[in-house]
Write a structure and sequence with these properties.
This protein has 2 domains: 117 residues, Rossmann fold; 94 residues, Winged helix-like DNA-binding domain superfamily/Winged helix DNA-binding domain (Arc Repressor Mutant, subunit A). Helix content is 37%, strand content 21%. The strands form 3 sheets. The protein has a 5-stranded parallel sheet with strand order 2-1-3-4-5, with helices on both faces. Strands 6-7-8-9 form a 4-stranded antiparallel sheet, with helices on one face. The longest helix is centred in the middle third of the chain and has 16 residues. The chain starts with a strand and ends with a strand.
């Protein structure tokens, strides 16, 4: 059971999602206007499902303004299928996206896959290629400085680091990290790796290598 916040300006969509997620005994809070949410409430939730196209504050703006204080996965619910829109949202710190219209099974599987990954038991620490993983806190440190990775960025790093030297396709990385594969999500992995590299490059660290025509590996 998890506490999930769903933000969408369509009451029918909110009711549908609430009914679907109740089947897995999740506690679902629905909100039509994101501007009415207090920042102090974010710590109460294990996941946020966020619509993009809303009047007033849209999903992109909400994610941009709050990602720094939201310590849980953010998944966009979107009718936008243009790759540029999706990449922009992921670049703001969202973990994934689900395109509308979505099926009941897809929504439940995607949500539960993220929650399983969040709750997976961890050991305390791991140090590979000069990068230190605080496994219990899901943090990455270089030279004792914490790098501000999103949940998905951290999870990708941990998956590749634990399998150091092995090459994985984008689809295999997605499946290994979240337990839910699919070709439509391969572009999300590309953007996450781009963000990871940019953040590690500040410390002159480039542990993720592209193997052209195949995928990525942790050196």
């Amino acid at each position: 059971m998890a506490k999930i916040l769903v933000i969408d300006d369509e009451p029918d969509i909110l009711a549908l999602i609430k009914n679907i997620l109740h089947k897995d005994n999740h506690l679902v809070t629905t909100v039509e206007n994101p501007e009415k949410i207090l920042t102090s409430e974010f710590s109460n939730f294990d996941m946020i499902l966020l619509d993009i196209m809303m009047p007033g504050m849209d999903g992109f703006t909400f994610c941009k303004e709050n990602r720094g204080i939201v310590d849980c996965p953010i998944i966009f619910l979107t009718a936008k299928t243009m790759e540029a829109d999706i990449m922009y949202g992921l670049g703001l710190g969202a973990d994934d996206y689900i395109t509308k219209p979505f099926g009941m099974g897809e929504l439940r599987a995607r949500v539960n896959a993220y929650l399983r990954r969040e709750n997976r038991e961890k050991h305390s620490s791991l140090c590979i290629s000069g990068v230190k993983f605080n496994l219990s806190g899901k943090e990455i440190l270089v030279d004792d400085k914490k790098i501000p990775f999103t949940k998905s960025e951290y999870n990708i790093c941990e998956f590749l680091a634990r399998n150091q030297g092995q090459v994985f396709s984008k689809d295999k990385i997605y499946e290994g990290v979240y337990g839910y594969g699919g070709e439509s999500d391969s572009s999300a992995i590309t953007e996450h790796v781009k963000n990871i590299r940019a953040k590690l490059a500040v410390f002159n660290m480039l542990p993720i290598e592209t193997v052209w025509g195949i995928g990525y590996k942790w050196k």
